[in-house]
């Protein structure tokens, strides 16, 4: 879900609005990224920040010289009918999980390198499937991403998440993945239209402290609304 990064963008937008200061989207993302890294004492990425800044359906390309945000020509309602984001209620520390992965990659661990490359391939495939309106293909890409992500570290998929995934799949979910670093927090479910209620009922049993937090696409990014 990128909750902490989304909160950072919202807080920054509010402070900028309150002080009358201005900052470009690129600059804002760079600032909150570095501030989050300072707080976590570990490197952080940018994808969660850009999602909060721009909204919509996007592909974020991490290229030499900086990131490029591509707005995808995909009907948000088409995705909204097929996606549910569920907060499992499992507490986790994503910054430390991510740092373990980065450290292993920098040390040249082959398994970590291959898993990360698999995630890159799954993300690229998901982009293509979404643009083509291929729901089954998108489900396979999401499932592939989760398969590779689970190989990054044992903390990514604790036993509680395994049980939640089993319950969601048995109720009709076609793909399941933890959002962000994994370990807890929110999960994304890809499912056929009309099957959300059955899946949510199964999740309520498997994760009684959880809740549905989103089932649609935000059309725009974070903005400040001043009420008079």
Please characterize this protein's 3D structure.
- Helix 8 packs antiparallel against helix 9 (196-206).
- A hairpin with a 7-residue loop joins strand 4 (175-178) and strand 5 (186-190).
- This protein has a four-stranded antiparallel sheet.
- The chain is globular and about 50 Å long.
- The protein has a single domain, classed as Alpha-Beta Plaits, CATH 3.30.70.
- The chain is of the alpha+beta class and 228 residues long.
- The protein has nine helices and six strands.
- The longest helix is centred in the middle third of the chain and has 23 residues, at 110-132.
Rg over C-alpha atoms, rounded to the nearest angstrom: 18 Å
Estimate what percentage of residues fall within beta strands: 5-15%
- What separation lies between the terminal Cα atoms? 32 Å
Q: Give the strand order, joined by hyphens, for the main sheet.
A: 4-5-3-6
Structural class: alpha+beta
Helical residue percent band: 40-55%
**Helix and strand run:** HHHEEHEHHHHEEHE
Low-confidence stretches: none
The CATH homologous superfamily? GHMP kinase, C-terminal domain
CATH topology: Alpha-Beta Plaits
How many individual domains?
Answer: 1
Output the CATH class name: Alpha Beta
Biggest sheet overview? 4 strands, antiparallel
How would you state the average pLDDT, rounded?
A: 91
**How many individual helices?**
9
């Amino acid at each position: 879900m990128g909750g902490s990064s989304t909160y950072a963008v919202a807080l920054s937008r509010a402070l900028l609005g309150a002080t009358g200061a201005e900052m470009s989207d690129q600059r804002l993302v760079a600032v909150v990224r570095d501030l989050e890294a300072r707080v976590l004492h570990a490197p952080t990425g940018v994808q969660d920040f850009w999602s909060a800044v721009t909204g919509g359906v996007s592909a974020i390309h991490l290229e030499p010289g900086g990131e490029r945000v591509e707005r995808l020509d995909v009907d948000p309602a088409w995705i909204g009918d097929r996606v549910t984001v569920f907060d499992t209620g499992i507490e986790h520390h994503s910054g430390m999980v991510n740092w373990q992965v980065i450290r292993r990659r920098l040390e040249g661990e082959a398994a970590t390198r291959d898993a990360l490359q698999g995630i890159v391939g799954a993300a690229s495939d998901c982009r293509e499937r979404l643009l083509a309106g291929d729901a089954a293909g998108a489900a396979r890409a999401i499932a592939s991403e989760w398969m590779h992500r689970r190989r990054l570290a044992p903390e990514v998929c604790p036993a509680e998440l395994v049980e939640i995934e089993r319950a969601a799949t048995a109720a009709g979910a076609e793909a399941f993945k933890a959002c962000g670093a994994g370990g807890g927090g929110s999960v994304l479910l890809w499912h056929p239209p009309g099957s959300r209620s059955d899946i949510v009922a199964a999740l309520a049993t498997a994760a009684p402290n959880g809740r549905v937090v989103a089932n649609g696409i935000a059309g725009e990014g974070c903005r400040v609304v001043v009420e008079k």
